[in-house]
Each structure stands twice: as structure tokens, then as C-alpha cells.
Amino acid sequence: MRKTKMVALCVAGVVFCATGADANKEFRALTNAKAFQVTDSAPHAIPLTNDGSTSKTINLAATILSLSYNVECTADGPDGSYLAISILVDGLPAGPDSGDGSGFCSPAGPDSHTLFSVVRNAIVAPVASGKHTFQVIGTGVNTTSWQLRNMMLSITAY
């Protein structure tokens, strides 16, 4: 009985989230299904859309931005290496941002090429209503290569 109530509650929560429209909320999604591979440790602007655009400017009427970057990721390199991701809004890192001090994904073993589904969340507040430019920057920290696939940057403006 308890399990049935929890399932019903979860389903109701999903339906509420999906249908609970708020007149003051805007949602945008930038997607890229193409693979993006890097074989050095330099910072790289990651394509946000299938056309290869590495930045997008969107007009939003908001004071708070909630960002979520979802992607399949693999990295290769020695122990301790990893890929770091920063989400930029108008050229500035969205918080919390630790630059290259925080791993987004890391190697699963020598030449494993294992894909992981990974999420990076950020909040930007306050922001002025108007046009904002979005970018995602990836930096390999001691990696020999890294690859991203099936990317989506979700932008919710409040």
C-alpha cells in the first residue's frame, strides 16, 4: 500500500511539474546530438546546437536563471585526470563555478571509452531582462582526450 501511494505521488508530481505553467517562467533548450571530441587540455567552447554554434543569444524577461547542462561524457587520461565544465552567461561563469577545479567526468580506466550521463547545474541571479549570451566551456585537466554526445542546455528564466 505504501509503495502504491509513493508511485501515485511521484506521478502526480511529474504531471504537476509538466502542466503547472507559470506566466512568469520561460523555458528554452539548446540541443546538440552530434559528438564533440577534443584531444588536448586547452579550454574549448562546446557546440550548443547541431549547426555547431558555440554561443547562443536569447532574449529573456527574467531576474533569475536556472541552468542545467545534460550530456553523455567520456574522458581518457591518467589517474586524476578529468573534464571540467563551465557554463557562461554573458561571458561570466554561472555559479557555482570552480573553473577547472571540479571534475565533470573522468576516465573509468585505461582506454575504457565508457560514456557517462552527467549533469551540471547553475544559478544566475540577479539578471536584467533582455538579451543574454550562453556558452559552455570544457577543459581537459591532464586528459589525453574527451568526448561529449547528446547535449542539452536547459534554461529556465524566472
| SSE pattern | HEEEEEEEEEE
Fraction of helical residues: 10-25%
How many DSSP E strands? 10
Distance between the termini: 38 Å
Proportion of residues in β-strands: over 45%
What are the low-pLDDT stretches, counting only 5+ consecutive residues below 50? 1-20
Structural class per helix/strand content? mainly beta
| Oligomeric state of this protein | single chain
Mean pLDDT: 82
Summarize the main sheet. Answer: 5 strands, antiparallel
Description:
The structure is a single chain. The protein has 158 residues and is mostly beta strands. 11% of the residues lie in helices and 47% in strands. The protein is built from one helix and ten strands. The protein has one helix at 2-19; strands at 26-32, 36-38, 43-45, 56-60, 65-76, 82-89, 92-93, 116-124, 130-141, 145-157. Strands 1, 2, 5, 8 and 10 form a five-stranded antiparallel sheet that branches. Strands 3, 4, 6, 7 and 9 form a five-stranded antiparallel sheet that branches. A hairpin with a 2-residue loop joins strand 6 (82-89) and strand 7. The radius of gyration is 18 Å and the shape is elongated. The model is unreliable at 1-20 (pLDDT under 50).
